[in-house]
Amino acid sequence: MPRRIIIHAGFHKTGTSTIQATLRENRVALKKHVALRLRWHLRDVVSSARGYSTEQDPLTLIKLQSRFGQMVNELPGMPRRTLILSAEELSGHLPGRGDLADYSAAPVLLYAYWEILRSAYPEAEIIIFLTVRAPQAWLVSAYWQHVKSSDMTLDLDTFCERYAGAADLEEMAAEIASRVPTPVRSATLEGARDLPLGPTDRLLDMCDIPLSVRATLTRVAPVNQRPPEDVLQALLAANRAHTAPESRDAAKTAILAQAGLS
């Protein structure tokens, strides 16, 4: 049984991909102290979490609970270690997709994870860890992520106005803390940038890893960074010019390849 479980459930665009890459890069050094289940280990769970965030219906929640419970049941023994579950989509989709205006599904999802983990590991300490960032910076980052990965055609100002309600991540963290009966801790992206491992250090601070091990860990380059402005504008133009998914995807793939970002 793990001695502690940390659920790192986002939020999106707050350094989550870099945290996961750092944990993966250092997995051998951390192995005696930490067990990892990262985004690519949790595909079925996050698929259901995304579905619930858009539908928010009981049947989708039951599917999520079933998949998460199955994942927990398949975990190996990990005595005295900390189990880290890290995937931003444990909180659902990135807001800004059509009618998905905010993270209102996140408290329900996190309660579901906590309830299943508490049943499986009644003696383990369970902590929810959330990375956050300043509202305007998050809106800009979320907008360009949608431009890059979806058919977003809104201009930035319209997007920021329409989805401003999603941007107060610290308020949502407080909402989660009020609805899930377990400690909720948060760390700002801005406040962690100068740490040796960036925001990953805030997560590892909760894992009781010896300083001698911490000193050996390797920092990775930031992951999923925003492309240059000219590339972003070209991607936005492609979204607006191509209504057929196949031609739009082909045009955007070519833009990224030309920029050396494919």
Q: How is this structure best described in words?
A:
By secondary structure, the protein is α/β, with parallel strands linked by helices. The protein has 2 domains: 4-224, Rossmann fold; 227-262. Helix content is 50%, strand content 11%. It has 13 helices and 5 strands. It has helices spanning 16-25, 27-30, 43-55, 58-73, 106-120, 135-149, 156-162, 169-179, 189-192, 200-204, 211-214, 229-241, 245-258, and strands at 4-8, 34-38, 82-86, 125-132, 184-188. The chain has a 5-stranded parallel beta sheet with strand order 2-3-1-4-5, with helices on both faces. α4 packs parallel to α5 (106-120), α5 crosses α8 (169-179) and α12 (229-241) runs antiparallel to α13. The longest helix is centred in the first third of the chain and has 16 residues, at 58-73. The protein is globular and about 55 Å long.
- Outline: globular
Kindly provide the name of the CATH class of the largest domain: Alpha Beta
Q: Care to count the β-strands?
A: 5
CATH topology of the largest domain: Rossmann fold
Percent of residues in beta strands: 5-15%
CATH architecture of the largest domain: 3-Layer(aba) Sandwich
Please state the average pLDDT score: 96
Provide the structure class. Answer: alpha/beta
- H/E series: EHHEHHEHEHHHEHHHHH
